[in-house]
Design brief:
This protein is α/β, with parallel strands linked by helices. It has helices at 5-10, 27-35, 50-63, 80-88, 102-110, 126-135, 158-168, 182-190, 200-203, 212-220, 243-252, 258-265, 267-274, 299-318, and strands at residues 16-18, 40-43, 68-73, 93-97, 118-123, 139-143, 149-150, 173-176, 196-198, 226-229, 237-240. α3 packs parallel to α4 (80-88).
């Protein structure tokens, strides 16, 4: 088993975290990831009320006795009420993305749970990582330019970003962006990361509720079939190419106001693609790792081959037997 400081701090078996996955990260997927030895997540932003989130947490707790996290995408709306629900339900792992984590971390400490709750913070640069560590984060997730969904503004690839952040902080670092098979896990560990977070790869699993059209599009896509939207409003995000992303990019070229852009980039338009399967009029998040996705395994099958494949790669390197492996693991996905 691949043991790191991250697995020890978070009490999990495998250093693999499932991303927040707006509209897709619900209790069953989170439970499947946690049951397979990783750290599953429920995304709080998908729930309109605290009561709805509470019910989903109860569902997840009925499906797994292992730890899982609640993800808070901070750019959506104030979420202190949802955080309270998670803490009251006994959730002790919280991940914070897409915004300044300070207020949420302070809220956890004011609740007297600073010694119990473990916090992960998604960052895209050294400065944000150092700040998160100073605020009391237990782990930072370094997301590179290859990743799907919202990214940093500096277009720094995972290969450079991860070691830069590893050198800048003392807490464990997870690598994210462009990782989808055993080679990516082994490479992340070689860069100094103590685990990985994957988003796009978990969309193409049997337990994910993404529409079959979304999953099929990922199987078909090459690494060149993604593009960046929302640059004009300072929050670049990677999506699969399509009619709606093309319209968004064309509109952004005219320097639209946020009000003009919102009808094209709203969560409902994303949901139309991701959940309803309308890839013509909606859009879906996807990283360049789509080019490495060739099947739709169960979550357990995916994690099993990620870990066993990475262990094999590490063993070959340790024995100084450097042999190119075109598959990356016994069942590349």
């Amino acid at each position: 088993m691949l043991k790191t400081r991250f697995t020890e701090i978070f009490g999990i078996e495998r250093p693999i975290v499932q991303g927040g996955l707006q509209h897709l990260a619900f209790g069953p997927l989170a439970a499947a990831v946690s049951n397979a030895g990783g750290l599953g997540q429920i995304t709080a932003a998908a729930f309109p009320t605290p009561a709805a989130l509470s019910e989903e947490i109860k569902l997840c707790q009925s499906l797994t006795k292992k730890p899982f996290a609640i993800n808070f995408a901070l750019g959506h709306r104030p979420m202190f009420d949802l955080l309270e629900v998670a803490l009251e339900a006994g959730v002790r792992y919280i991940s914070l993305t897409a915004g300044n984590p300070e207020a949420m971390i302070n809220h956890i400490h004011k609740a007297g749970l600073g010694g119990e709750v473990k916090v992960l913070v998604l960052v895209a640069g050294v400065r944000a990582a150092v700040k998160a560590e100073g605020l009391g984060a237990h782990t930072v997730i370094a997301v590179g330019y290859e990743g799907g969904g919202h990214l940093g503004r500096d277009d720094i690839g995972t290969l450079v970003l991860v070691p830069r952040i590893v050198d800048a902080v003392k807490i464990p670092v997870l690598a994210s962006g462009g990782i989808g098979d055993a080679r990516g896990l082994a490479a992340a560990l070689a860069l100094g990361a103590e685990g990985i977070e994957m988003g796009t790869r978990f969309v193409a699993t049997q337990e994910c509720i993404a529409h079959p059209n979304y999953k099929a599009a990922l199987l078909k896509a090459a690494e060149t079939d993604t593009e960046i939207i929302e640059r004009s409003i300072g929050r670049p995000a990677r999506v699969l190419k399509g009619k709606t992303p093309t319209e968004i990019i064309q509109l952004e070229a005219s320097n639209p106001s946020l009000d003009q852009l919102l009808p094209y980039i709203s969560g409902e338009v994303n949901k139309q693609g991701a959940v309803e399967g309308d890839l013509e009029n909606g859009f879906v998040w996807a990283g360049q790792v789509a080019g490495l996705i060739h099947d739709i395994p169960t979550v357990k099958e995916l994690l099993d081959r990620l870990v066993s494949g990475a262990e094999e790669i590490i063993g070959r390197i340790a024995s100084k037997t450097i042999v190119a492996d075109p598959k990356g693991d016994s069942a590349l996905g």
